[in-house]
Design brief:
Blueprint (H helix, E strand, L loop, with lengths): L10 H25 L4 H12 L9 H6 L1 H18 L9 H26 L11 H16 L3 H11 L4 H33 L5 H30 L4 H29 L8 H15 L3 H26 L2 H32 L4 H6 L9 H13 L4 H29 L14 E6 L3 H12 L2 E7 L13 E4 L5 H6 L7 E4 L3 H14 L4 E5 L6 H6 L3 E3 L1 H14 L1 H7 L6 E7 L20 E7 L2 E3 L12 E7 H11 L5
Parallel strand pairs: 1-2, 1-4, 2-3, 4-5, 5-6
Antiparallel strand pairs: 7-10, 8-9, 8-10
Helix pairs in contact: 1-2, 1-12, 2-12, 4-8, 4-10, 4-11, 4-12, 5-6, 5-8, 5-13, 6-8, 6-15, 7-8, 7-16, 8-11, 9-10, 9-11, 11-12, 13-16, 15-16, 21-22
Length: 647
Amino acid sequence: MHSVVENFNPELIIFICAFAMIAVAAQRFGKLFTQIRLPHITGMLIAGMIAGPFVLKMIPKAAVEQIHFINEICLAFIAFAAGAELYLKELRNRFISITWNTFGQLVITFTFCSICIFLTSAYIPFLKEFSLENRIAVALLAGTIFVARSPSSAIAIINEMRAKGPFSQTAMGVTVLIDVLVITLFAICYSVSEALVNGDKVGGGFLLILVLELIISFGIGWLLGKTLDLIVSLKINIRYKAPLILVAGYSIYLFSYFIRDVSDHYLGYDILLEPLLICIIGSFHVTNFSRYRAEFLNIIERMAPSIYVAFFTLTGLSVSLDVLLSVWPIALSWFLIRLVGLMAGGLVGGSLAKDPWKFRMIGWMPYITQAGVALGLTTIVAREFNVWGEQFAAVIIGAIVINEFLGPPLFKWSIALVGEAHKRGETKENQRDVIIFGLESQSLALARQLQDQDWRVKIATRGLNFEKSEASDLDIRLIQNLDLEAMEALDAKNAAAIVTLLKDEENYKICEIAYENYGTKDLIVRLNDRLNFERFHELGALIVEPATAIVSLLDHYVRSPMATSLLLGQEKNQDTMDLEVQNANLHGIALRDLRFPSDIIILSVKRAGQMLISHGYTRLRLGDILTVVGSKESLENVSLRFESINK
């Protein structure tokens, strides 16, 4: 049985400590790569290669073998992360397109790549001397790995580009679904390849055992999901739940080794349970059928950086650089084979889904990038097929590095080409307009604060009683009268909010014009006389009464200081935002099922002008307005998901 216990010796602790120091250095090295616009994981891979047995020799090859259990812990986590991305409720609106494009990328890419690699295997130095069965096995396994994608990279690019639209949504759905299905495909091809290499017959009995293995894997995956539910539900600190989840994942590897040894001893043949498949099913269960989904995703999100550093660094340490340098032309040719396979898969899948021609022609670009799952499958092959596994891994890793370099820029270019990029400041869609009536210290301060939050602000005044140098950074408009003509000149019809800081009669005249002619979303009035409250209230204005505002604010500080600080934006990197539900995919989804970042809190839900008493089971409707609080980065990402998607 392969386990850390079996491989334990006094030097193991030293090797683990040495690896930890190398991993910390690799993480810093990876950050340097991001500063020159290169992939983070490529930096960590290269750092591992440099520190490994073939360059600096900071850790011997024997030590890499002894700490292999770290790789298995990381692989279990990667499977958990992949399964957590497959949230069915968010894929329903583009389900047909996602299904057909997944078919194209899975079936066409796998078939094309496997056939091409097999046909060229006779010309590959490390394969041409091997038997037909071994070459078939290599082709099947390489074709499978070439199907794998990188959800984390896709998410990062979509967030960076602020991408919103059917092309981006389909690309994200296919990427996530592929990484789930490729594990099942790998389990099948792995069993077939092992049978071919060992000289076993691939007949009816073999197929029956293969189906049985898959059924058992799905059953154990369901039990693992229940176990993960139990771990997350424990009333302990989140920092203790994370290692328990990792232990649960690693225990699946130990259990699969145990079943393999026992079946070989008593039955005469191996029962192969694929740990990655089991882990991904367990995570899928928690994500889609458990009430602990939000906390589970939070734990996965927190653990991810450390796990990925360990995994990519260890993968770099495991690469045989001498072999990689000798096979780089093969890696380049396999990359080109995969590229053509992706193009064919995108064209076939897009045609079956009846996507626009532009989507079909560039539908392969979002799927080039590979990362965790592909590297994880590669390490499994390298370890289990020791005759040609090392050379195989070197070629695949070389191809993956090329994919990492070329994939992100092509994905970004495709998003821009279909017009779904919404980078800050590039389009009017993300800009918000507000008009402030009245020129004084408060209006200047308010204007600057709103500009910092990406609002387009105009200050309207009937008298230029200020020094221009004091407000050279602001758009100040001189108006002669408070009438419809002046409002038109200010483009008031496009204003999301109007703030009035004048006398009550002047404020009322402005609000009345806006109410009758534009239906402005938010009319905000600084009230001077309490007797005028009802007049403004009838127009639906939001009223700030200076005489009581300070007392009310102090009262809230006394009774709820943290909440008041959040609402006033005084907490570091925290803010509040109103979000209107415009995305049809969110219509009918319960609040508890929203995939929000862990630092987002929903304060209220407003529907048709009425505030709802909301709870986890409240279902969203188009036009609902949610008031949320969280970090500025998280609020920005969430706001994109609430905007409409053109179909």
